[in-house]
Amino acid sequence: MHCRKEQSFEKMEQNGNHPRKKKGGLVTMPFIFANEVCEKLAVVGFNTNMISYLTKELHMPLTKAANTLTNFGGTASLTPLLGAFISDSYAGKFMTITVASIIYQIGMISLTLSAVLPQLRPPPCKGEEVCQEASSGQLAILYVSLLLSALGSGGIRPCVVAFGADQFDELDPNQKTKTWTYFNWYYFVMGTSILVAVTVLVYIQDNVGWGWGLGIPMAAMFISIITFIGGYKLYRNLNPEGSPFTRLVKVGVAAFRKRKITKVPNSNMLYQNHELDADIALGGMLLHSQQFKFLDKAAIVTEEDNVKTPDLWRLSTVHRVEELKSIIRMGPIWASGIILITAYAQQGTFSLQQAKTMNRHLTKSFQIPAGSMSVFTILTMLTTIAFYDRVLIRVARKFTGLDRGITFLHRMGIGFVISLFATLVAGFIEIKRKKVAMEHGLVDHANEIIPISVFWLVPQYSLHGMAEAFMSIGHLEFFYDQAPESMTSTAMAFFWTSISLGNYVSTLLVTLIHKFTAGPNGENWLPDKNVNKGKLEYFYWLITLLQFINLIYYLFCAKMYTYKKIQVHHKGDNSSEDNHIELVNNTL
């Protein structure tokens, strides 16, 4: 793992201080994790059980409610691109997280008020069938609240992960914590907060009221803002170095303008300017790669170019060309995560609807809220992360020789396989559930509880949790490690955009299947009111097929992927070329 961008050695020597020993490290983690914990309490406390709020309180049809949630999830995972751009280009991570948290707080206040004030939601149903759907004005308040929450998430999600990783410097002997360990425990802490949300908060929403159910995470978000700002003096804050997207565009323009120039026979003849790149490559210069050679033309020096003060729209350095190559290489791996999220998204919609029809009683007086079934996903994820970090890495290290045990591409591949089995199993469990409903004559009764234990759903929930422990953390590691040094927030945004598109693909699938499987007698794979009359197992198996195709695609992309190479300058080496080059095995 290469070192992360920080102040240059020269600047430290001139100032006569050692900021690495004063800033960052483990002492900053409580402040950073506090922000993430409360953000997840707010997001998950809202999302996990919101299908119930939309259908029972706002009286939305099931498919419309499911699509509303996946659209919100998609938007909330797309806005990180905006947050990352602002962070990497202008504001920096700390300021972006702070402002975004405040915006999120406003959205939570608005959402809580919509749940508390009767005039902001439709009246209760009169009987089982007579329900007035929420008015356009009531829905507008809901959507504005969701939009503010999505914008707030867009600033928090891409920055808080990268900001935490920035606090560690692997060259500093006092901060030997590996970034891959940080990612494991970041996800573990996040998972713990989600566990609280899907148990305590969901119970409060179902049994106490939505005012309290949303008010508690709203208060938690306020506390997180105060806590995060309170750690300001401890943080290692890295200044933004201008828009990374503009740099990438300049490389593309320069390569296009020189498209007719003959390629140089030796890559050593390409333009390099370490002084020009110093502010964007403090972690090390990217070395020339053999892929996408047409972009190399941007670094060919012609008679019209001034190498001392180059016009970057005509001449780019090798490092800047390799930045663009890195982003292009990451694209196929990024795309492979979309279908996995499509599969995972069903836990908050149709899997929850399954749970609502099943026997959830632990005792005669207590039953598990349907929204709390995802606790099995989280518990499995947390257990898998702990096992992976404490046991699997140590065992794998003996065979691979890697500090991290296995590569993040291996880790992602394992997650894809497990997720495939999750939806395959879900289809068979749905057949079992409907069989029991048919045996007891309950197929036509949407609101009757089928005498089959909700614990039949545990395998599909648990497999999704295990898949996330492998794939999602591997995905985070991949983006942070393989992205250019100056684009760490942007790299985290890539992670969230794959989640965004996964939710949008889910919306598209649900919409198309609901439309094209509709029969003349109200038959449908995904009916609006009575899931017992549907063919939900076919839907799960369709996703399983898509995941199988996606797995083949991923294996091909991972096999072809070339890791970036970095030339790292080490202080104290007396040679004129004080470099260390780390090469990583580029096979799956």
TrEMBL record:
Chief location category: membrane
Keywords: Membrane, Transmembrane, Transmembrane helix
Membrane topology: Multi-pass membrane protein
GO molecular function annotation: transmembrane transporter activity
Biased composition (Basic and acidic residues): 1-13
Transmembrane segments: 94-120, 140-164, 185-204, 210-232, 366-388, 408-429, 494-518, 538-556
InterPro entries: MFS_trans_sf, POT_fam
Keyword Membrane: yes
Pfam families from the UniProt entry: PTR2
GO cellular component, one term: membrane
Cellular compartments annotated: Membrane
Family affiliation: Belongs to the major facilitator superfamily. Proton-dependent oligopeptide transporter (POT/PTR) (TC 2.A.17) family.
Name under which the protein is recorded: Uncharacterized protein
Biological source species: Pisum sativum (Garden pea)
